Amino acid sequence: MRLRDLRSASSFRLALSFAALFGSASLLFVGAIYFLTTGFLSGNPDERMRAQAVSFDSRSPDNAEAMIDQHGTLDPANRRPFGLFGPDGHWIAGNLKKLPDPLPTPEKFFETSVRSEGQMTIYRSILHQLPNGNRIVVSRNIEELAQFRLQLLDMTISGLVLMALLGVVGGTIIGLASLRRLDSVTLAIASITRGDLSQRLPARGNNDDIDRLVRVVNSMLDQIERLMGEVKGVCDSVAHDLRTPLTRLLAGLERARRQNLSREEREVELARAIDEVQQMLRTFAALLRISEMEDGARRASFREVDLGQLVADVVEYYEPAAEAKAIRLSYAPGPAAQAPLMILADADLMFEALGNLLDNATKFTPQGGRIAVEIAEGPVIRVTDSGPGIPAEEREQVAIRFHRGSQSRDTPGNGLGLPLVSAIARLHGMELRFEDHRGGCRVALAATVSPLSPPMSAAGGLKIFNLLRRSPAKALVAASN
């Protein structure tokens, strides 16, 4: 972070813009006060001076001269000097001895400076011509008004300078704080682009605009890290889990080629090979479906679905399989599903996810056991069985592709059922979770966002991540949409 970077910081430029705006507004405000105040302080005395000058029109020359001399006697400090002059400009009476040069326009106020006892004194005056041709000058000392003007002007300039300094200093502080925060975000992003997906953008927790963007990006990074982790482990898992069926397939074909088998034995080997290939195809099909779910391509088919009716259909579909093992399968809609509970969903995918949960429950529940399905507030769909359950230490791993728990190693399958359920759940703004339950297993699909607002997919997250690298503003708009 360098000081020269402040010139390009939007927060610094914004702070200076506000300082200039408020400075201009303050200048206009103080200017208005200055002109209104000086105008008020000058206006009323000016009118009195004009009235005094005009009042001499009705006086005789001798009376006017006497009154002006009397005024001079009463004003020894020359605070309001008067002067009476003849038509040719010679002095007749008063404590103002000389007409201004050049001669001002009659009936117009003017300001003049007079040196008296080594000091310059500022007077405001008016020249009035009497009916007999004489001229009278009525003045008043405006030194205090001039001092007030100067002080007000000095205060205005000082205030503007102080405001400019405060604007620059405040803009620098705000700009440096903004740069420091953005630098921490930039460093985190740079670390992420180098491959460290465990990094997260720092948040202050004050819920400002940057914090909201950071939360969206961090949520996207969680999704990307999870997907990248799964992709990283899929290759090893595929190689490990497909090696056995491929080895069996190769051994059967080699045996069929080397040995002189009868037609019936050859048919058996071919049937085994076909079974192995079909099993591998089912595995790849499941992988492709999980990728399809995580890509969010199926969200275009979302429609309003009655969740209670959907769960009832799944339960009805699996009742024969449960009855075959003498398992008591029950469905309790609960208060949340008493009225139609409409959500945005792909009915086929939700049917498949719930079907996988019931299929697993039927598979692992012993004969004569029980399975209960319920809908709670949230909405939350719970499937509870009386089977062996899933150990707490394995609950996070069972949703990983190809992972098989200790209770299911001897059961046919490829370890992709629960990952598919988890992918479908995320597509619908839900999460797959395992809850504690004595004497069995309880699996739940719980909504994490509004059921009428499907969540951001991995593809959408990657799109926002790419936008973030090019334009943070566009990334925020894309995330909010």
What features would you describe in this structure?
By secondary structure, the protein is of the alpha+beta class. The protein folds into 2 domains: 1-194, no CATH class; 299-456, 2-Layer Sandwich (Heat Shock Protein 90). The protein contains 10 helices and 12 strands. It has helices at 10-55, 61-74, 143-193, 209-258, 263-295, 307-324, 347-364, 417-427, 458-470, 472-480; strands at 82-85, 91-93, 109-116, 119-129, 135-141, 303-306, 328-332, 342-345, 370-376, 380-385, 430-435, 441-447. The strands form 3 sheets. The protein has a 5-stranded antiparallel sheet. A hairpin with a 2-residue loop joins strand 3 (109-116) and strand 4. Helix 6 packs parallel to helix 7. The two termini are 33 Å apart. The model is unreliable at 451-481 (pLDDT under 50).
